[in-house]
Amino acid sequence: MYAIIESGGLQFRVEPGMKLNVPRLDAEEGGEITFGKVMLLADGGDVLVGTPLVEGASVRAVVLQHGKGDKVLVYKRKRRKGYERTKGHRQPYTRIEIKSIEKG
Asked: Residue range 67-93: average pLDDT?
């Protein structure tokens, strides 16, 4: 069984027991969260596609930790002007573990 959920404007394919990083969520470490935006549910050959969401479906997960991703360097330069700028960015994320998928 798997589902496609939305979190932070991104879509993720999730299965029970799976661990993944999603954009930073406002939740305590060790706490449980529920994703209500389920776009697709598949159980063997039975597939439910939402329009745009599957009614009553939800995905339960546990927050494992919060962190920051790898550094991305942004470099700007204009030729013949002596202009150079380097800037770094680390995107915050939340690591979660999927516990169950409910059809509702």
From this structure: 98
Is the bond preceding residue 52 a cis peptide, omega within 30 degrees?
yes
User: What pTM value is reported for the model?
Assistant: 0.86
All residues at 6 or more sequence positions from 38 whose CB lies less than 8 Å from its CB, including other chains: 3, 4, 5, 50, 53, 54, 57, 58, 59, 101
- Please, are residues 101 and 18 in contact by the beta-carbon 8 Å criterion? no
Across the strands, what pairs with 66?
Answer: 94
User: What per-residue string of b and e applies to 48-76 under the rule 16 or more CB within 10 Å gives b?
Assistant: eeeeeebeebbbebbbeeeeeeeeeeeee
**pLDDT over 80 (residue 104):** no
Q: What Å distances lie between residue 77 and 32, 71, 90, CA to CA?
A: 46, 20, 21
Sort strands 83-89 and 72-78 into parallel, antiparallel or unpaired.
antiparallel
